[in-house]
Amino acid sequence: MEPFRIHILGCGSALPTLKHSASAQLIEMRGKCFMMDCGEGAQMQFRRSHVHFAKVSAIFISHLHGDHCFGLLGLLSTFGMLGRTSRLKVFAPECYASLFEQQMNFFMQGMTYEIEFVPVDTTQQKVVYEDHSVTVETVPLRHRVPCCGYIFREKPTLPHIRRDMIDYYGIPLSQINNIKNGADWTTPEGDIVPNSRLVEPADAPRSYAYCSDTCYLPDLYERVKDVTVLYHESTYTSENEDRAKIYYHSTARQAALVAQKAGAGRLLLGHYSARYNNENVLLEEAKAVFPETYLSQEGMVFEVK
């Protein structure tokens, strides 16, 4: 099974602290690397991750609050100074289009690579990125500005052909793809070996849902049903639920309810309010509802499996 990793670059909220960086993640899957949000200081955290800058093929921005996007221009500039030549796509709410163009024209003249802005309709759930092995789908959220989450999904793969069957029947390499696609094997003696004996089931496709800043949405679980890992903002504990409503954020318990109802495999918490010196209070609150809950922390690499 190929690696599917989430690198946590930042998991703090709007107020900068010495403990946490602003929201940013790297998602490695199927040999590609995507960036999810790019708060201030993201490129410094990026360097600490030991993921090469050139690996990033697309950046996804959930919404236009500074703690999720103030690091974008600096990172794009650094890519240019490092001699990047491959095209880069930036997916962000469509209201950013005109300002992004102005920033590119002002700050990014003479870059050696092409930057394509892809406007995102944050009110729709739809696939916005697709290649031969991965899809990325938007998830409408509700915050003080247009905002959406994203689901990163692996596409199904073909079954695994059994090595012992290849050796036993002397199956040539030229026929392996046919068998993976469902063909039986006919021996030189004319006996037919059914496909079910020749292959083992493919690995189940994995998925990662990133639910950025949002108030609690009781029906959100339907949009992230059965994801392998769910990241859901958890800015407050339940004792500050009134504050969460005012600022369109969620509590740790509410994040856990979404994970529980969605049937998610695991839950990652993040976007912690600076009022908490110890985020274990958030973890304990969430685990009371959904035991498979974990705290995200800068430098953490979380395996999706």
Structural overview:
The longest helix has 11 residues. The chain contains eleven helices and 18 strands. The protein is an alpha/beta fold and about 300 residues long. β2 and β3 form a beta hairpin. The chain has a seven-stranded mixed sheet with strand order 6-5-4-3-2-1-18. A seven-stranded mixed sheet has the order 7-8-9-14-15-16-17, covered by helices on one side. The chain has two domains: about 260 residues, Ribonuclease Z/Hydroxyacylglutathione hydrolase-like (Metallo-beta-lactamase, Chain A); about 40 residues, no CATH class. Helices cover about 25% and strands about 30% of the residues.
Q: Mind summarizing the main beta sheet?
A: 7 strands, mixed
Secondary structure class reads alpha/beta
Low-confidence stretches: none
**Order of helices and strands, N to C?**
EEEHEHHEHEEEEEHHEEHEEHEHHEHEE
Given this structure, which CATH class of the largest domain is correct? Alpha Beta
Number of domains in the coordinates? 2
> What CATH architecture of the largest domain do you see?
4-Layer Sandwich
Task: Count all strands and give the number.
Answer: 18
Tally of helical segments: 11
Strand content: 25-35%
CATH superfamily of the largest domain, called what? Ribonuclease Z/Hydroxyacylglutathione hydrolase-like
* DSSP helix fraction: 25-40%
Mean pLDDT over all positions = 95
**Strand line-up of the largest beta sheet:** 6-5-4-3-2-1-18
The radius of gyration over CA amounts to 22 Å
